[in-house]
Amino acid sequence: MDSEASKLNQKADKLDAKGKSGADVLRADAKNLSAGAAALRDTSSAAPVANLVADKDWSTVHPGGSPGSQAFTPDSHTIYFRNGDKGVFGDHASASPQWEIGHESIHVATGQRDQIGPNGFPAYKYGNPAMVESFKSLIGTPAGANNPDNLMGLVYGNN
Ligand SMILES: [Zn+2]
Fold first, then answer.
1. Cβ < 5 A residues, ion ligand 1
2. What is the rounded distance in angstroms from the CA atom of residue 33 to the CA atom of residue 25?
3. Centre of ligand 1 from the C-alpha of residue 113, in Å
4. Maximum Cα–Cα distance for the chain, whole Å?
């Protein structure tokens, strides 16, 4: 995430040097990726805490969450990961553990929620077709710079 942030900042500098637009979005991407990475490295007493939650307790910590949800960040101090039948990250896990951990780190570090695309659906790379369409529509946009899955797409690939 830090390495991608560094590359994005370099690209932004090149765009500025050429007098081209688009640097703002790249710098926002970089800022949020760096914030997530910093949260993952944080070992201070104020650091966010990742909790492993048993499957039977998932609906208690994430009321109203979709059945396939695997992780949830309710505030800037707390991340929950679901320990399902196949273990943590084992159920419904199209996304890699790195993707899921990075995604939640963006939530906890920036306070941004999953962004809603123009079609009215939250933008998830690994969601239902409408969510995937939403995700694709936010690639390279200011809203995408605040969307955890779009930021993970910059690091791990959009396809
Ligand atoms: Zn999310």
1. 114, 148
2. 12
3. 6
4. 55
Average pLDDT rounded to a whole number, residues 34-40 = 97
Structural domain boundaries, residue 76: 2-156
Cα distances (Å, whole numbers) of residue 44 to 40, 80, 114: 11, 19, 26
Amino acid at 100: E
Q: What is the count of structural domains for the chain? A: 1
Q: Could you read off the pLDDT of 55-84 as tens digits, one per residue?
A: 999 999 999 887 778 899 999 999 999 998
Tokens read off for 121: 């659906």
- 55, 27 Cβ separation under 8 angstroms: no
State residue 155's pLDDT score: 97
Instruction: Give residue 18 CA to ligand 1 midpoint distance, Å.
Output: 35
**Cα 104 to ligand 1 centre (Å):** 6
